[in-house]
Specification:
The structure is a single chain. The protein has 410 residues and is mainly alpha-helical. Helices cover 63% and strands 1% of the residues. Strands 1-2 form a two-stranded antiparallel ribbon. The longest helix is centred in the last third of the chain and has 41 residues, at 364-404. The radius of gyration is 38 Å and the shape is flat.
Length: 410
Amino acid sequence: LSASLDPAPGSDRAGDVPGPRAARPAHWPVDPAGRRDPAGRRDPAAEDAPSRDRPESDRPESDRPESDRPESDRPEEGGPRMSLGEHLDELRKRLFIGVVGMALAFAVAYGFQDRTFAIVLRPLRQAVTWLNADLEAAYDKRLAADPDLDPALFFELTREGDRRLRESNLELGSAHDTGLAADQDLDPERVLESTRGSARRLREPIDTRPQATGPGEAFIGNLKAAFYLSLFVGGPIMLWQLWLFIAAGLYPAERRAVLAYIPTSLILFGAGTLFGYFVMVPYAIYFLNTSIDLTQVRPDFRYAQYFSFLSSLCIGLGAVFQLPVLMAALARVGIVASATFAKWRRHFIVLAFVVAAILTPPDPFTQSIMAVPMVVLYELGILAGRFVERRERRKTSAAGAAATGSAPKP
């Protein structure tokens, strides 16, 4: 122990406090975490060395002066410093404006209930129209197979059919008066057999109006419809207000990075939602009900179940359409390269159909409607990742050329 405490040659005497530049004893172990000697004491030379004496590359970003930082990482000058209370007041103001915008959208959607219900029920009515056309074709096949069946069991005349029947009866009466067609007879059954389209309709068609089986199901459904529409219309207002609050504390480079992805993300989410509303939901309802015999089993839709089906598919597709943005962001920060995404393409195709089977009803057609766009979006994500990587390489090459004074590589 006494030997370990003996001062090294050329140092101060034992017991003296070494100066800032005192030599470290050779027998002290080098500990990167703190340079402690066997007795547990810290190296005074390491403690006294100020951070400004360190090499520039080893100093943390917070210790470096703003003049030495890259221009894109410097905060903007001229803006006043805000206290915590002022930040909270600004956040409250932004949230208030966003909430007011969403509340106005909700009030408009709830006030125009007829239009709101028409928007919500459009995919269902389109699918039911296709199902009624299939049901009419099925009844025609049964009548063709069994001529003894009465067409009035399945069809009834419309106003157009009644008009044709009256005109035919007048023609028949005129023929009887002239004695040219005394043996002819015309009745509604023959009109039903010979008419199609607007002249007849199904006697018991599938109803395009969903059923509300609970006492408050229709009211709750109307509130949900108005709320989702207010999110779709007023949500961008809320996001814009939050962005105005957050952007004030970001560096210019960070703002540019966010603005490069947020608009694209919103556009893709809207595209996915509209794709689900106009394409996937009506086709899913139609194909889920064509696997049964419509002449034996009559579909009867509940409003709560239909709205849950509609909202889950539309929101799910909106989230799925974020795939290119996520892949481009991962490629930009260097977590996953575009070449890696291309390598795992086959695995993703299998994963896409598995995810589609989980998020959609157990129908191959509906799963394909969701899985195929996912595969297309994956390919777009690979292309976006390659584009981002090429751009980052050009920036790096230009920065290196500017530092060395040589021309950048094309």
